[in-house]
Each structure stands twice: as C-alpha cells, then as structure tokens.
Automatic annotation (TrEMBL):
Keyword annotations of the record: Lyase, Metal-binding
PANTHER family reported in the protein's UniProt record: FERROCHELATASE CHE1, SIROHYDROCHLORIN FERROCHELATASE, CHLOROPLASTIC
Name the record gives this protein: Sirohydrochlorin cobaltochelatase
Pfam families, per database record: CbiX
InterPro entries membership: CbiX-like, Sirohydro_Cobaltochel/CbiX
Organism name: Cupriavidus gilardii J11
Keyword check for Metal-binding: yes
GO molecular function term, any single one: lyase activity
Amino acid sequence: MNEPAGAATAADAAASGQALVLFAHGARDARWREPFDRLQARLAAMLPDCAVRLAFLELMSPNLPDTLAELSAGGARNVLVVPVFFGQGGHLRRDLPALLDDCRAKLPGIRIRCAAAVGEADSVLDAIAAYCVACLSASGD
C-alpha cells in the first residue's frame, strides 16, 4: 500500500499503541478517493505518533479487516475507526457493526472503538454550511 507523505508506518503504531482508521465506502472511480487521501495525509501530519490509515467497505482497498490486522501486527493496541460517511445509513447501522465484531473476535489483543459518522457532528455541518455560504458569495449572485 502506498502511504501518503508523512503517514506513520505500522511500526510507528508500536511506539504509541494508537491508531486512527478513516473508514470510507469506496467507489469504482479511483479519483473518488483523492479527498480521503488528503484527509489521511493531514491527520498523519497532525498526529505524528499515531498510525493513520484509510480503509474501505467495498470496491477499493485496503479493506477494514486487513487494515486492522496490519495495525495489530505493527503494535497498535488502541484503534479508533472513524466512518467518513455523511450519515448513519444501512452500511453504518448493519454492515460496520458486524464487521467490527468479526475483527474484534479475530484481533483480541487490540481495543477497537468506533466514532459516529463524521456528518453527524455539528462542527462538520457548520464547516459545510460555511463552505456553501462562501461559494454563494463567490458566485456573485
């Protein structure tokens, strides 16, 4: 897997035991992942002692089980999975909990927590609203 510049290696997870996994849906078009790669790179720069990864539900790799296994092998002991989804749809209500339960059973040496979808946070909605207002202002209409 190609790591973005500044991304921590699996061995870096052993230093702090901390890891962050951005969990996205995936798409057939490879360009779709570009903003997620940029987000991963930004977080890696902000969290130099934390292994920051990107994993996908489907259509792209790596998948979540492979990512968590790699982090565990690298020494991660406390992993936070952050769904980079706008809301809590079926994938996050059904598919992700089952996937996490399976990973927890296979990787008993690590603690795997899961945050709510990023779109559920008011601060994210505020940032999107500010972006929309800025775009409207910039359009001159």
